[in-house]
Design brief:
Layout lengths: L3 E4 L19 E8 L6 E6 L1 H7 L1 H11 L22 H13 L6 E6 L19 E9 L2 E9 L3 H5 L33 H11 L5 H13 L1
Antiparallel strand pairs: 1-2, 2-3, 4-5, 5-6
Helix pairs in contact: 1-2, 1-3, 2-3, 5-6
Length: about 220
């Protein structure tokens, strides 16, 4: 199996990361996996940035397999805008490496205000107060991102910078299938910059206004 980065041949496929359609001729990332429902393989399609954010390991593998020596993408010279503005090859690689260094970072699935006070934070276990900002989380299983709770915006450092334990017996290495969070022991490597987290929240919650993002940014920086 070889993951791919290529232009979309049609506009029918939806991105597994954000749920939006990938336009014809737009650059897309394909993660090739075994088909759990039959023989052969299947390809899961993502916008490049969605793939870098949510599936960093196969995305890096796809970049290594697709790129040619001068840093451009093979066979994409005819495409005027192979990626969104600012999404250079080096920049996309950097985004995916943040997720490789901090294994919980790809769980981010946007932000929003809590509609009730029923949900509990996966980090501190305390209730998330109604109307306060919270970060949504997902776990990746068999090609799908399943909703898996929330954390307070103020708990982002303890949760996202924590080092998870390895997969439990019977779980596939590299698959984020655990429903039990490991203790919040800080992962090795460089600490996360709040801007890295804010960029992901903005990407997966495009409905957030500049005022919303400024409030969230303030909470991220003060945590």
């Amino acid at each position: 199996m070889s993951h791919v980065i290529e232009p979309a041949t049609s506009g029918r496929a939806k991105c597994r990361g954000c749920g939006e359609k990938i336009a014809k001729d737009e650059l897309r990332f394909g993660e090739v996996t075994e088909n759990p429902y039959g023989d052969g393989d299947r390809t899961l399609w993502f916008h490049p940035l969605c793939g870098a954010y949510k599936r960093p390991e196969p995305f890096v593998e796809a970049m290594a397999a697709t790129l040619i020596e001068d840093g451009s993408v093979a066979d994409l010279e005819a495409i005027e805008t192979p990626a969104a503005p600012g999404e250079t090859i080096a920049w996309l690689r950097d985004q995916s490496r943040f997720g490789l260094d901090h294994r919980r970072l790809p769980r981010i699935d946007g932000a929003g205000r809590a509609p009730t006070s029923r949900a509990h934070c996966r980090s501190c276990r305390e209730p998330i107060t109604k109307d306060s900002w919270r970060i949504g989380l997902v776990f990746y299983e068999e090609g799908y991102f399943n909703p898996s709770g929330f954390i307070h915006v103020g708990c982002w450092r303890n949760y996202l910078q924590a080092e998870d334990e390895g997969p439990a017996q019977g779980e596939a290495a590299g698959e984020d299938v655990s429903r039990r969070d490991a203790p919040n022991n800080e992962a090795p490597g460089e600490p996360l910059d709040p801007a890295v987290v804010l960029a992901r929240l903005a990407h997966f919650s495009p409905e957030l206004t500049p005022t919303d993002l400024a409030e969230i940014d303030g909470e991220l920086k003060s945590a």
